[in-house]
Design goal:
The protein is mainly alpha-helical. The protein has one domain. Helix content is about 70%, strand content about 5%. A two-stranded antiparallel sheet has the order 1-2. The longest helix has about 35 residues. The radius of gyration is 21 Å and the shape is elongated. It starts with 15 loop residues before the first helix and ends with a helix.
Length: about 190
């Protein structure tokens, strides 16, 4: 009989998304954490797949007294990114409408509704934008979608300010007041 020790299984290969997430999260322990969070917050509104909360959560856990500052700065940076995403959506809308020959002036007169397709999308999508800005929905989807369907800029701005403020202050506040035990419930 041999006295060989059991061989440990090799670690499972991480997906590209998980590796990227871990790299972004690792930035939270560097001296450039705030700049990285602001950059990720801006780019999150248009293309980046990792939410800024991957940086925000460890930053607040490391320095809980700065929770409101991080939330405020993250909200502002996220709004800048939201505007970039919104205008990206406007460009996509212009290209898609002309390429697909979609008629947004088509009148809908059913179920007590009398409006054009463009009016229905633009006037009502902002409520969805507000909800999705708070919920764990990728903000880039909200921003680009708002631009694509023609949500009036003032309504998008209102939805984004309210939604992103609630989201950043809620995540940051929970981390500040409930600490590491709350992190496992949030799983951002």
């Amino acid at each position: 009989m041999s006295d060989s020790a059991p061989v440990a299984a090799p670690p499972a290969k991480l997906s590209w998304y998980r590796r990227l997430y871990l790299r972004v999260e690792a930035l939270s322990s560097t001296k450039h954490a705030l700049a990285a969070m602001l950059l990720v917050s801006v780019v999150d509104g248009s293309v980046f797949p990792i939410p800024p909360f991957a940086l925000l959560v460890p930053m607040v856990l490391a320095q809980p007294h700065k929770w409101w500052r991080y939330a405020l700065m993250g909200t502002a940076a996220s709004l800048v990114g939201g505007f970039i995403g919104y205008y990206l959506g406007v460009l996509l809308h212009q290209g898609a409408v002309s390429f697909l020959q979609i008629d947004l002036d088509m009148r809908i007169q059913r179920f007590g509704i009398d409006a054009t397709l463009g009016q229905l999308l633009g006037q009502n999508f902002w409520v969805l934008a507000l909800l999705c800005s708070v919920l764990p929905t990728p903000f880039k989807v909200v921003a680009i979608g708002s631009g694509m369907v023609g949500v009036p800029l003032d309504r998008f701005f209102l939805a984004a300010v309210l939604g992103r403020s609630v989201r950043f202050f809620l995540v940051s506040g929970v981390m500040r007041f409930f600490g590491p035990t709350a992190r496992k419930w949030l799983r951002v």
